[in-house]
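Quarterly update from the structural biology core.
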Amino acid sequence: MPYRHGKGSVLTTAHPHPPLSPLSPPPAPLLEQARQDWQLFLQGTAGEQTVSHLSPELLASILQVWACSRFVARSCIRHPSMLEDLFDSGDLERSYDSGHYAQQLDRALATVTDEATLMTVLRTVRRREMVRIAWRDLAGFAVLDETLADLSALAEACL
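Predicted structure, tokenized:
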């Protein structure tokens, strides 16, 4: 019997252990850390206004993703406007076209005139998109092929 991971992806039974389902709860200690991180995030932002308009799927994914990725949780806590932008833009719930990252970087770098600003813009874009890619993967919003393609496209665009 094949195992399912994400939407529509089928992995064969040749692998001895099934992949974690996006619906599988994280271990209790990780979930507790995610809850603490989420409270910390809410204290530093507009709180409930940040999440009041989210889809049920996206809202349900927050603790799952934050429990599974300290990188995502820490990035969101340190850069709350980035997470708010990801929520507001709908980018966590949509796939990108193949040339999206290159176009995004072209727009972001259009007014850059010095190396320090270049590095800041690259770090900001890279962080946002790495959080987006990880979130979509850990929440089961993207299949593995899409996750790997996005990582490759982002890396190429950043070079």
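Residues 28 and 121 are 37 Å apart (CA to CA).
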